[in-house]
Amino acid sequence: MKSLLIKNGRVIDPSQGLDDTLDIYISGGLIKQLAKNIGKKAADVIDAKNLIVCPGLIDMHTHLREPGREDEETIYSGTRAAAAGGFTSICSMPNTRPICDSRTSVKYIHSRVLELGIVHVYPVAAITVGQNGEEIVEFGDLVDAGAIAFSDDGRPVMNAEIMRRALEYTAMFNAPILDHCEDLNLSDEGVMHGGYVQSLLGLSGIPGAAESTQVARDIELLEFFGGRLHICHVSTMASIHLIRRAKKRGVNITCEATPHHLTLTDMAVKESNFDTNTKVKPPLVSEENRQELLRGLQDGTIDVIATDHAPHTAKDKDLVYIEAPFGLIGMETAIPVLFTDLVHKGIITINQMIEKMTIHPARILRINRGTLKPGSPADLTILDPKKQYTISSEKFFSLSHNTPFEGKKCRGAVDTTIVDGKIVFSKGKIMGNETV
Amino acid sequence: MKFHHKHLLTLEELTREEIELILDNTTGFKEIFTRSIKKVPALRGKTVVNLFYENSTRTRTSFEIAAKRLSADVINFSVSTSSVQKGESLLDTAHTIEALGADIIIMRHSCPGAPQLLTRHINASVINAGDGPHEHPTQGLLDAFTIKEMKGRFEGLNVVILGDITHSRVARSNIWALTKLGAKITIAGPSTLLPKAFARLGIRICTNLREAIQGADVINLLRIQMERQRKNLFPSIREYSLLYGLTEERLKWAKKDVLIMHPGPINRGVEISQEVADGSHSVILRQVTNGVAVRMAVLYLLSGGEEV
Questions:
Q1: Nearest by CB: A320 against B117, B166, B169
Q2: Which of A96, A227, A306, B45 could be cross-linked to A256 through a Cys-Cys bond (beta carbons 3.0 to 4.6 Å apart)?
Q3: Contacts made by residues B17-24, CB under 8 angstroms, sequence distance 24+
Q4: Helix (H) or strand (E) holding B104
């Protein structure tokens, strides 16, 4: 494996509290040395002057659609979209066809990634068989097969007793439950956030309480019965309040928010004239709720930024609003959007952004990544914080184009993505067709 | 003044002046109704298509008569309920209709925003004839026209919209038109059917019928639908009628010259009693007549006509 020297970059590694101009020497797929002015010779040299070098980004919430909906995304296209978005590791959610609820499914994903993937993929398995919400999966066998976590994402576990048993049982393996919180009776036929804009548009609303009542329930279950709980795509003020209070009293809970919930509001539905690329679960919330998400991001209540990349074809999205599927893609827009709307506006620091996309998800997932400590796998992302970049779905590596950020003018982009010491993406191009 | 919109999708997006322009034109077209030959050549050679994804005899017929009185060729394109389930067919149908040469498509659909989707894919003008609970602009205009005709003004009028506001496109279009024209709006009904967020529009929200209609110049009643009861939004039609049914006795709480309006079809004995529906305050049939004139004005202005 070729050696690589990255020179003169601003190296930010929150796992070591590091923010300094340093060189990084990589060899054998590992980080060997971090120091000023490394004199060693390397096969490849990258000059990272004016750029930021950080641990490879981790997206712990994506949908790769394979197997089952290869017209929307595949492991081939999804891992390329990840690389282009600066992500060196991603978690794949289990709501494929078939649902990833068995050793066979986990092994299938692993074999496809080995064959076609260019970033690391950590399969998340379902909590219940077929995500039916009734019968728990063989957690032990799945952990052994390589499932990194468990989630019925997209189909919340409505039965509190099932969630209780899942938390209790998975505690044996220290595997987190990635919890999609939504009371289906409250969300009912809702298609957007319940509130002022929804009232104007006459679309059915999903009240914020659909999320927060289940967040409250699952915090109670966690405290009573133990386990590891990570709340997915938190979107409302009430949920943030509940999680913040739980953390204050020492509950072992974590959560994530998405770039779209952090930067868009329900006004996007109106302003886009009912563009179905604004239809997502949980729905884009009101500005008041969004402001609380930003406070949660600042004070650490929100541990992780994850994209909930959910590809859908144009054919499926070009329907009237109530008939179109929920979901939007996010891996290739995350960094430009976060830089433009959060970092450059001074809402969070670049260090905060990076820690929520590297060491925090790595710790939750218990993987030896998200850090530049010598000896660690050489997963790195190089960011260009000043690059002018206009989002154009035509250029995406994802098979799908369902983004609400089409045409957005951004400042800040991904320059290079390095996985296990190999450059997989650089300056707009996927490098070679090698697999990891 | 010319009308500068290609489509009529909402009243929210119109200015007061644009609404007034439509109402002024309506007066001119209504005058035609008194002639022995109720037809003008304004839209001769134009093709108007009624594309209705929901059953509606009233609105469809009203548009049809309006277009015919303007000498347009009118085609009614009813879509079977089964194909409504598939959104692809909406765009496919629209493309087909456009290929047939439609100049104006009048569309009703159960989903808010459906006409907006249509405008992104075709070149014809689109008139929204009701998109789910969102808007029904020509109904809002005909209600405004009827109030103007009967009261001569909007400023300072107390207009109460009573019933299921949450699921009503009529309510939303009325709210936009009448607030822009200067009337004071109260929405009234059971709390589960009143969007609380509407307070932000500066309108009064009231759950008590007596308080709501005290001092009212106009009461616009909405049809109450059985399916809302199945969703537990109110316990029974009986209870709805007990709390909100408009009877002659209760009508005394409003002003003496109060107007009773209803977009129809009415549920006699539920939201409105027989006596009130047919009584001297009722302008329900006048609304139907005015609907044709308003739709003529809209069709005329959208096809580029100057003020009549």
A1: B117
A2: A306
A3: B19/B141, B19/B144, B19/B177, B19/B180, B19/B181, B20/B181, B21/B301, B21/B307, B22/B141, B22/B294, B22/B297, B22/B298, B22/B301, B23/B141, B23/B144, B23/B145, B23/B148, B23/B294, B23/B297, B24/B307
A4: strand B104-109
Dihedral pair phi/psi, residue B147, rounded to 5° = -65, -45
Reply yes or no on whether the pLDDT at A211 is more than 60: yes
The DSSP symbol for A173 reads G
Instruction: Give the largest CA-CA distance in chain A.
Output: 65
Is any Cβ of chain B less than 8 angstroms from the Cβ of A189? no
- The C-alpha atoms of residue B262 and residue B273 are separated, in whole angstroms, by 12
**Which tokens belong to A342?**
């959060």
> ∠ CA B87-A156-A247 to the nearest 5 degrees?
130
pLDDT in tens, B104-146: 999 999 999 999 999 999 999 999 999 999 999 999 999 999 9
**Could you identify the residue written with the tokens 């679309």?**
A203
CA dist., res. A424 & res. A416, Å (int): 8
- Residues on B contacting A at a C-beta cutoff of 8 Å: 12, 85-88, 90-91, 109-114, 116-117, 120, 131-135, 166-167, 169, 172, 195-198, 200
Among the options A179, A308, A384, A420, which is catalytic?
A: A308
Inter-chain CB pairs, A–B, below 8 Å: 66
Q: What is the 3-state secondary structure (H, E, C) of B122-179?
A: CCCEEEEEEECCCCCHHHHHHHHHHHHHHHCCCCCCEEEEECCCCCCHHHHHHHHHHH
Nearest-angstrom CA–CA distance, B72 and B100: 15
Q: Within an 8 Å CB–CB cutoff, is residue A322 touching chain B?
A: yes
User: CB–CB of A212/A201 below 8 Å?
Assistant: no
What pLDDT digit, counting tens, does each position of A157-190 carry?
999 999 999 999 999 999 999 999 999 999 999 9
Rounded Cα–Cα distance for residues A38 and A234 (Å)? 43
Cα Dmax for chain B: 56
The answer to whether A199 contacts B113, with C-beta atoms less than 8 Å apart, is no
DSSP secondary structure string for all residues of A375-417: TSB--EEEEEEEEEEE--GGG-SSS----TTTT-EEEEEEEEE
Higher pLDDT, A260 or B38: A260
- Closest alpha carbon to A219 in A202, A235, A238: A238
Contacts of A199 in chain B (CB under 8 A): 166, 195-198
Beta-ladder partners of A231: A179, A255
Task: Quick: pLDDT tens for B66-80.
Answer: 999 999 999 998 776
Note whether ipTM > 0.85 here: yes
A200 touches chain B (CB under 8 A): yes
Pick A319's closest partner by Cβ from B87, B197, B200.
Answer: B87
Cβ proximity of B48 and B72 under 8 Å:
yes
Token pair 């060693």 in the structure block, residue: A40
Q: Is A319 close to B88, i.e. CB distance below 8 A?
A: yes
Q: Does the active-site annotation cover A308?
A: yes
Among A365, A417, A409, A297, CA closest to A146: A365
Inter-axis angle of helices B57-69 and B137-151, to 10 degrees?
A: 70
User: How close, in Å, is residue A201 to chain B by CA atoms?
Assistant: 5
For the segment B203-223, what is each residue's pLDDT rounded down to a tens digit? Answer: 999 999 999 999 999 999 999
Q: Which of B113, B195, B196 sits opposite A320 (nearest CB)?
A: B113
This prediction's pTM: 0.95
A195, A319, A320 ranked by CB distance to B197: nearest: A195
